[in-house]
Design goal:
The protein has 269 residues and is mainly beta. The chain has a single domain, classed as Trypsin-like serine proteases (Thrombin, subunit H, Beta Barrel). The chain contains five helices and 15 strands. A six-stranded antiparallel β-barrel has the order 9-10-11-14-13-12. A six-stranded antiparallel β-barrel has the order 2-3-4-7-6-5. Strand 10 and strand 11 form a beta hairpin.
Length: 269
């Protein structure tokens, strides 16, 4: 009990400190402002909804697995209605690509009763119908290290009230990480699912996590994301296989040990 109380007290202090230091959102609504971030794009899902995603290869987009499921039915959304808009800004994209194939992480379970467990493997790779080969749209590297508590990160995302251009949050922080889930002081909203979370590597920004959900901790908004390190290894074996018809379902958090560890209350996206 004392250990849990100490952890929760630490979370309160860490959360307050992180929120106090985070930067505001900056809209990347000009060519100059968005330079270097063109490989982040909007994924139009169909039915008027969208998610965010980022190129990690000329023909592969990393995003959140739950974006591929219909919230009402729990069924997989047909790929025919999906499109990746690289660098979408003010009605135009650097490149437009349909989705040929989508593969979710082998351990992701849309029906899992544990929301934290779902966030931990909320990852999907989209194969584009043709590679994007442009000097302005350069795929991002994936980070080769784990999340570090207290580390500064950067997020580029779209959201329902900023759907026409990406927004940059230059500085937010890792408040906690546990079992593949990162809790961040970063801003997240509807449409932010799938957004890349970056750390700065030797050669530029590297994707360390993917935004999965927004939540509340100590009454403050936080973002929960799936850690990328070590989680993409299985995709190389799965990706070449033909896509199979798949279905899924559902939504939950209170009462589980992992929920207590993070100290977050989920807000339905």
């Amino acid at each position: 009990m004392l250990r849990l109380a100490s952890l929760l007290a630490w979370l309160v202090v860490a959360l307050n400190a992180a929120v106090a230091q985070e930067s505001a959102l900056t809209e990347l609504d000009t060519a100059d402002a968005s330079r270097g971030w063109e490989a982040v794009g909007r994924i139009d899902i169909g039915y008027g909804s969208f998610c965010s995603g980022a190129l990690i290869a000329p023909d592969r987009v990393l995003t959140a697995a739950h974006c591929l499921f219909d919230v009402q039915s729990g069924e997989r959304i047909p790929l025919a209605g999906m499109e990746f808009l690289a660098g979408w800004r003010n009605g135009r994209a650097e490149a437009y690509r349909k989705i040929r194939r989508a593969v979710i992480h082998a351990d992701y379970d849309y029906d899992s009763p544990s929301k934290v467990a779902r966030v931990a493997r909320d990852l999907a790779l989209l194969e584009l119908d043709s590679p994007i080969r442009s000097g302005r749209v350069v795929p991002f590297e994936v980070a080769k290290s784990r999340l570090r508590r207290g580390a500064k990160v950067t997020v580029v995302s779209y959201a329902e009230d900023r759907a026409q251009a990406p927004s940059l949050q230059q500085v937010c922080h890792v408040i906690e990480s546990f079992s593949g889930v990162g809790m961040f002081s970063c801003l997240a909203d509807h449409g932010s699912s799938g957004s890349p979370v970056f750390v700065m590597g030797e050669d530029g920004p590297e994707i360390v996590a993917v935004i999965s959900a927004k939540a509340e901790a100590n009454g403050e908004p936080v973002a929960l994301a799936s850690e990328v390190f070590g989680a993409l290894a299985g995709f190389d074996d799965i990706f070449p296989a033909p896509q199979e018809a798949a279905t899924g379902g559902g939504a939950g958090l209170s009462g589980s040990p992992d929920a207590a560890r993070l100290g977050a209350k989920f807000v339905r996206p």
